[in-house]
Amino acid sequence: YVFPGGGGGVEANVNRWLGQFATKPESKTEEIPAGDQKITLVTATGTFNDGPPMGAKTPKENYTLLGAIVPTADGNNVFIKLTGPKDSILKLEPAVVPKAATVLPSPVKR
């Protein structure tokens, strides 16, 4: 999803994603160079508060969030976020990074 103006920037969005967990999750944030830009990758595992943005939440234990924030040429960001059971999401991780890179004109080196 693209939020005009970046939805508060990279750090604000990473913090918002981490705040979707019931308690502080085990997490890792890294930047991957892509030409003259960087893709921000976030992986977090813990008890995820699942549900619509303004609705009731259901705690889901041992859930993982895998997210990518991809800058675009026009100054916006594309946000890619997957959540689900840890084992399922981690199996998808090798496919997510190359797909995130397709938003940029330059190849991603990891």
What can you see in these coordinates?
The chain has helices at residues 9-18, 86-101; strands spanning 2-3, 26-34, 37-50, 58-71, 77-85. It has a 5-stranded antiparallel β-sheet with strand order 1-5-4-3-2, sandwiched between helices. It is an alpha+beta fold and 110 residues long. The chain has 2 helices and 5 strands, in the order βαββββα. The longest helix has 16 residues, at 86-101. A hairpin with a 7-residue loop joins strand 3 (37-50) and strand 4 (58-71).
Which features would summarize this protein structure in a list?
24% helix, 110 residues, 2 helices, five-stranded antiparallel β-sheet, disordered C terminus, alpha+beta, globular
Write the layout of secondary structure elements.
Layout: E1 2-3, H1 9-18, E2 26-34, E3 37-50, E4 58-71, E5 77-85, H2 86-101
Antiparallel strand pairs: 1-5, 2-3, 3-4, 4-5
Q: Which structural class fits the helix and strand makeup?
A: alpha+beta
Shape estimate: globular
In percent terms, what proportion of residues is strand?
A: 35-45%
Largest sheet: 5 strands, antiparallel
- Counting DSSP H or I runs of 4 or more residues, the number of helices is 2
Instruction: Please count the beta strands (DSSP E, at least 2 residues each).
Output: 5
Summarize the structure.
The chain is an alpha+beta fold and 110 residues long.
